Amino acid sequence: MWKMRSKTVAVMLVTSLISVASFADGHLPEVEAEVRRIDQNAGKITLRHGNIPNLDMPPMTMVFQVEERALLDGVAVGDQVVVTIEQVEGAYTLKSIRSNASP
């Protein structure tokens, strides 16, 4: 029993380290989202987003800071987008955004 538990813990640890390493090298996962609200003056955006694996965050609707306010240019409420999000100095921060509109 102890050997089985040790192997399970080892596999989980290796899997976690691989996941962390893939995000640590600058490759943030792309997440599909819907724009719910934009506050250009405050530099914030409200998104209904899918799972954000690098933050261990399940799908929900929440407000994010934007890294640069220019990221909000050309984005409108209701847009389907693909985003990358990272925790920067304790704040969940939108790092990139692009349209996910079907052609």
CATH architecture of one domain: Beta Barrel
* Uncertain parts: 13-25
The secondary-structure class comes to alpha+beta
The average pLDDT score comes to 84
Beta-strand fraction estimate? 35-45%
The topology string of helices and strands comes to: HEEEEE
Number of helices: 1
Q: What name does CATH use for the topology of one domain?
A: OB fold (Dihydrolipoamide Acetyltransferase, E2P)
- The residue fraction in helices comes out at 10-25%
Question: What do these coordinates show?
Answer:
The chain is α+β, with helices and mostly antiparallel strands. It has a domain at 28-99: Copper binding periplasmic protein CusF (OB fold (Dihydrolipoamide Acetyltransferase, E2P), Beta Barrel), CATH 2.40.50. 22% of the residues lie in helices and 39% in strands. It is built from 1 helix and 5 strands. A hairpin with a 4-residue loop joins strand 1 and strand 2.
